[in-house]
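RETRY 2/3 - previous attempt timed out on the joint model. Re-submitting the same 196-residue input unchanged.
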Amino acid sequence: MVNIDLILRLAGIGFVVAIAYEILDRVNRKELGNLVAVGGVAVMLLMVVQVIGQLFKTVLTLFHL
Amino acid sequence: MATALRLVGVGLTATVLLVVLGQFQQRSVAMVVRVAAAVVLLLAILVPLAQVVAALGRMAALAHVRGLYLSLLLKVLGIAYLATLGAEVARDAGEGALAGKVELAGKVLILVLAVPVLTAIVQVLFKMIPG
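RETRY 2/3 succeeded.
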């Protein structure tokens, strides 16, 4: 039930995105780095939103809301 | 027992990952991971909580408490659960004022749920007072 895969996957994407941003920043491609960062965060948010929806649905059924 | 170990393990893993992610310039990446960890832990807690809620329902049936009141209590608990999650996430991101608004929204919604009970109490009181 504990969804640790999601946290590990998100952290992996986060590492890749953060390192890509740092490298692109070093080679004076900051605008490309910002694009990568925003895209990465959007992908991560898409993954998190599904779990948040699952949490909301479970809370709604559990507490008769 | 296994569940407790698993939950603490998830918390420790997420903490270490967040500390390492915090060294980078991108704050938003760490923020998303923080939200995910909070949501995963809360979702895992809901399974044991469901057993407690079921036990509460059985006890209420034994004590002949009206189902309306138990349902109201559970609704208040659910609103508090969700509002606290939202407020804590906002506070983690440094948006203290927004966190206060989320908590205020939760309190107002709980108050709206409590109003019918309050009016019922007041009506009973007025019936007891003669004249």
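Residues 67-131 of chain B form one domain. Closing ticket.
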